[in-house]
Design goal:
single chain, mainly beta, about 60 residues, 4-stranded antiparallel β-sheet, elongated
């Protein structure tokens, strides 16, 4: 399987503990170059940008006796 990476930018990589080139990986959501996700070209550490949808949140209140 062929993977195309594009749009290199330099960012801090937590995996490498240094500045590294990050590129937009192939986007499975169909965003193409507009995808906000980035991956380190050295170690693959990902920066994922998106909105988390949380359903059925349960709030529990604890009171000390």
């Amino acid at each position: 399987m062929s993977m195309t990476w594009t749009s290199a930018v330099v960012r801090w990589c937590a995996g490498c503990s240094d500045e590294r080139a990050f590129e937009v990986p192939p986007c499975e959501d169909g965003h193409g170059l507009d995808c906000l996700d980035l991956a380190c070209v050295e170690c693959g550490h990902a920066i994922v940008v998106g909105v988390a949808v949380i359903e059925d949140v349960v709030v529990v209140e604890l009171v000390a006796a």
